[in-house]
Amino acid sequence: MKRILNLEGAINLRELGGYPTKDGTTIKYNKLLRSGDISNLTNKSLKYLKNYGLKYVVDFRSTSEQRTWADTTSNFYKIYSDPVYPLRGNGQKLVNLVKHDEYSYLGAIYQSVVLDAHGQQAYRFLFNLMLDNDQDKQSLLFHCAAGKDRTGIGALLILKALNVDYETITKDYLLTNLMYEDTKTIEKTLNDKNGNQSINKMNMTKGDFQSITSIFSAIDHYYGDFENYLNTAMGIDKDKLAKLKAIYTE
């Protein structure tokens, strides 16, 4: 199976299936897709996604982005608006209290997202929808604009929850950099001159190893460990976590 799905009208669309877990299982194919913008999907791409079993689409972009680049609609999947930004909780304040080394530009932002009450609410919605995606031959796609930051955090949380090892999580996150070796692609298709300039800057900034490290450092600092974060912030207790693993791994 291909990791990178080069479908016309999609940006940075990738399969999450096939990754091994530390439990000795593997993430199932045809269950989870991560992506950037999907506002220009062609009929050929839609046919592929229908055969893939796509049923749920979670859009992490702001309402402004969703208006400017509306997702391609279809009768075989439902689109769920789930904006990560603007953050409305105390995430940024909590980041300032974390004792850490100097993290990258993206790293500090990622920390604020995973600690912010609104950011947590957005990813909690994703996890709850994942629990509904329990039928065979049905899949879920989550995306933002570049498929790097908001989507990258979502993928990281999912892979960590499914007990994928740190090295694999890192490789999946950094794979986006290969997709955007030519930053003109992002500049041409994603930057909204009248939109949120912070989001534009994030889209143009390459991911780095420290970005991922910063997330786990912030979570460990405030929650002790990732399992407690899942339970407290995501509402995923041991029973729900077992169900997630049953749905998405084999």
Automatic annotation (TrEMBL):
InterPro entries: Prot-tyrosine_phosphatase-like (IPR029021), Tyr/Ser_Pase_IphP-type (IPR026893), Tyr_Pase_AS (IPR016130). SUPFAM superfamilies: (Phosphotyrosine protein) phosphatases II. Gene3D superfamilies: Protein tyrosine phosphatase superfamily. One of its GO terms (molecular function) is phosphoprotein phosphatase activity. Belongs to the protein-tyrosine phosphatase family. This is Tyrosine-protein phosphatase. The lineage of its organism: Bacteria, Bacillati, Bacillota, Bacilli, Lactobacillales.
